[in-house]
């Protein structure tokens, strides 16, 4: 997944410093920061789910060993990184629909973490 995100973000850009100096950068250098940030958010969510699941030990499998659960983490991280890219590059998408997808993902994750 990280390789995919590197390809998406592989775009030259210019950063203007406070003193007006222009620096040429490649946006793929920022991917690792976003990746690690969203991975941490997902891991914190896993901890909340695991704490709640402790109340239902017999019923809930070990989520860390579940392949589908790991896939959820990859999709969560990739989607958030892509949305960040779309917003940063002002690509032609409806901002309301983009925000709605993030809101729905977050709502679903909060509901799951409380086993609603």
Q: Report the average pLDDT across residues.
A: 81
Radius of gyration: 18 Å
Specify the helix fraction band.
Answer: 55-70%
Look at the helices and sheets and give the structural class. Answer: mainly alpha
Number of strands: 2
Structural shape: elongated
The major pleated sheet works out as: 2 strands, antiparallel
Terminus-to-terminus distance: 30 Å
Biggest sheet, spatial arrangement of strands: 1-2
- How many helices? The count is 4
Q: How much strand content do the residues show? A: 5-15%
List low-confidence stretches. Answer: none
Pattern of helices and strands: HEEHHH
Question: What does it look like?
Answer:
There is one protein chain. Helix content is 63%, strand content 9%. It is mainly α and 116 residues long. The chain has one domain (2-113). The model has no long low-confidence stretch (mean pLDDT 81).
Describe the structure concisely for a colleague.
This protein is mainly alpha-helical. The chain is built from four helices and two strands; from the N terminus they run αββααα. The chain has helices spanning 2-9, 31-53, 67-89, 95-113, and strands at residues 12-16, 22-26.
Task: Please render the helix and strand layout as text.
Elements: H1 2-9, E1 12-16, E2 22-26, H2 31-53, H3 67-89, H4 95-113
Antiparallel strand pairs: 1-2
Helix pairs in contact: 1-3, 2-3, 2-4, 3-4
């Amino acid at each position: 997944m990280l390789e995919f995100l590197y390809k998406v973000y592989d775009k030259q850009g210019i950063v203007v410093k406070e003193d007006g100096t222009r620096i040429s950068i490649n946006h793929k250098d920022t991917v690792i920061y976003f990746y690690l940030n969203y991975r941490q958010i997902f891991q914190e969510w896993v901890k909340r789910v695991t704490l709640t699941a402790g109340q239902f030990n017999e019923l809930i499998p070990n989520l860390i060993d579940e392949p589908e659960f790991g896939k959820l983490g990859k999709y969560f991280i990739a989607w958030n990184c892509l949305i960040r890219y779309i917003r940063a590059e002002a690509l032609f998408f409806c901002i309301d629909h983009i925000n709605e997808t993030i809101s729905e993902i977050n709502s679903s994750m909060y509901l799951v973490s409380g086993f609603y």
